[in-house]
Amino acid sequence: EDDFQPYEDEIKALKEEIQLLTEKYEDIRQESTFFSDEEILKAIKSFQRETQEETKGEASLSELKAQLESLETDLSFLMKFTGFHFTSHSKKTLEKTRNRTVQKHRLSGKCHSLSFQLEFQLLEMQDNEKVSTVVSDLSIIMESREDSNVSKFVSSIEERGDLLTFFRSLSTYAEWYEHRRHTFLHFK
Questions:
Q1: What average pLDDT score do residues 119-132 get?
Q2: Given 1, 121, 147, 185, which residue has the most CB atoms within 10 angstroms?
Q3: Which residues form a coiled coil (predicted)?
């Protein structure tokens, strides 16, 4: 039995890593649903099919490695396509009942070269089969907030709790910010 212990330890470590990657993938997938690119939809459907299949018996090491590589590929594709790279995410459940959940999220990352941090509460309510979510107490920290236009925009997003518009706009703004930065470097 001791001969198999190193393999079992490695399988356990890989399963934990797969779980972490799955959670990160889900977080990014939820924030990226506004992109309708065919390849993203295909990657998400492929990921959902893989996670819905129940593992029967003990998976071999090569199967676990292949699954891990597939998750990493999907995650890498989403990060390249959107420009978002999430460096940390934590959530804390503040309240949970049968049809109501309140969670506090902290999220940090970069979009192209712009760093950002978000903190917000997410209220999720389930009514029969319908699930609705409400974002509240949104706080955004961005390095380019000294720009008055960006500051006004961020303030209005915080008031409305509109995460979708924030991520859409940040993606476009960060891309053009990067182009401007390269252009100015070229003239220096």
A1: 88
A2: 121
A3: 4-81
Res. 75: pLDDT tops 50: yes
- CB-CB neighbours of 171 under 10 Å: 19
Residues 119 and 104 sit within 8 Å (Cβ to Cβ): yes
Q: Facing residues of 105 across strands?
A: 91, 120
* Residues belonging to the chain: 188
Sheet holding 130-142, edge to edge: 84-96, 100-111, 114-127, 130-142
pLDDT in tens, 18-45: 888 888 777 776 665 545 456 666 666 7
The angle formed by the CA atoms of residues 24, 124 and 77, to the nearest 5 degrees, is: 25
Buried b (16+ CB within 10 A) or exposed e, 62-86: eebeebeebbeebbeebbeebbbeb
**Mean residue pLDDT across the chain:** 80
Contact 24, 75 (CB under 8 A): yes
Q: Name the pTM for this structure.
A: 0.55
In this structure, are residues 71 and 18 in contact, taking their beta carbons and an 8 Å threshold?
yes
Give the 3-state secondary structure of residue 10. Answer: helix
Half-sphere exposure of 156 (CA within 13 A, CB side): 8
CB-CB contact of 123 with 94 (8 Å): no
Residue with tokens 């090491």: 61
